[in-house]
Design a protein that fits this description.
119 residues; Nucleotidyltransferase, domain 5; globular
């Protein structure tokens, strides 16, 4: 079991489901998972979408991910390989995990516990 709190950034257009592509998201909901695996909404962060009609802006990509660097995980419906690599270089673990937000975060918690068994 993980003995620390961590933050999860979630790409959602409605605050109910993870349904936004990373590059098209204009804000991210920020959730905290505590030591008891309780999930709390901490707020949200506005960003300028990284993608413009199929093209992406490298500066906005760096800026958006730097603004999420305190988050351990980034949950999205889709994310490109380049954005994944930049996120990982900043210590953020990106995951394509569409679905209802709380259910998806609970799946993330299960995943993390399984990974810790192999740690």
């Amino acid at each position: 079991m993980d003995d620390e709190k961590y933050l999860v950034a979630v790409a959602s257009s409605d605050g109910i489901v993870i349904n936004s592509h990373f590059g098209r998201a204009s804000f991210f909901y920020i959730y905290e998972v505590d030591e008891k695996d309780e999930i709390r909404l901490k707020g949200y962060r506005n960003v300028e979408p990284v993608c413009d009609g199929g093209n992406h802006d490298d500066h906005r990509l760096q800026e958006t991910l730097a603004g999420l660097a305190d988050c351990k995980y980034l949950l999205v419906s889709r994310i490109g390989y380049g954005a994944q690599a930049v996120a990982q270089s900043l210590g953020i673990i990106p995951m394509e995990l569409p679905g209802e937000i709380k259910e998806s975060i609970n799946e993330l918690i299960k995943y993390q516990k399984i990974q810790s068994l192999f740690g």
